[in-house]
Amino acid sequence: PPVFQVRMVRGELVDEAGSSALEWIGLIRAARNSQEQTLEAVADLPGGQIFYRALRDVQPGEELTVWYSNPLAQWFDIPVTATPTHDEKGEERYICWYCWRTFKYPNSLKAHVHFHCALSHGRPFLHHDH
Q1: 28 & 51 share domain
Q2: Bigger pLDDT: 43 or 122?
Q3: What value does the mean pLDDT take over residues 1-6?
Q4: Which residue range(s) make up the domain with 16?
Q5: Alpha-carbon distance values, 95 to 31, 36, 80, 81, 115 (Å)
Q6: CB 104 within 8 A of CB 67
Q7: Phi and psi for 111 in degrees, rounded to 5?
Q8: Domain count within the chain
Q9: What is d(CA 63, CA 86) in angstroms, rounded to the nearest whole number?
Q10: Lowest-confidence segment of 43-57, 66-80, 113-127 by average pLDDT
């Protein structure tokens, strides 16, 4: 995957090459869990503009990863919680409560339930324009 170096300039993330954020912002990887999450997607109001907010100081060279704030997840109808179970080796696993597919990370399960699980909803995924 392409790598972009960005820096914070007056509260805005700027690509080192001066490219507009539209060219690279969609390449920020979804955080698999809260431990690796560096950014939170927040909205100024329901259906309004979406911003990425740093949750902590990000170190030079550290990858940016993002997940939804709870209010934004609720707005998009994305689960906000995922309860782990433990497999026979004692490792945490997250199981889809509709199709029983197993995931290693909580956000992978939440994304699956919302976007991919055919059994979770008879309704097609409604695309919200951001």
Answers
A1: yes
A2: 43
A3: 74
A4: 3-75
A5: 18, 20, 15, 12, 15
A6: no
A7: -65, -40
A8: 2
A9: 29
A10: 113-127
Q: Of 10, 14, 32, nearest to 23 (Cα)?
A: 14
Q: Tell me, yes or no, whether 96 and 117 share the same domain.
A: yes
The domain spanning residue 59 has which CATH number?
2.170.270.10
Nearest-angstrom CA–CA distance, 9 and 85: 42
Task: For 65-91, write each residue's pLDDT tens digit.
Answer: 999 999 999 988 999 999 999 989 999
Q: Is 116 in contact with 108 (CB distance < 8 Å)?
A: no
Same domain membership, residue 83 and residue 30: no
Token digits of residue 121: 């909803």
Kindly state the tokens that stand for 77: 């109808």
60 and 105 share one domain: no
Phi then psi dihedrals of residue 53, to 5 deg: -115, 130
Q: Is 14 within 8 Å of 22 (Cβ atoms)?
A: no
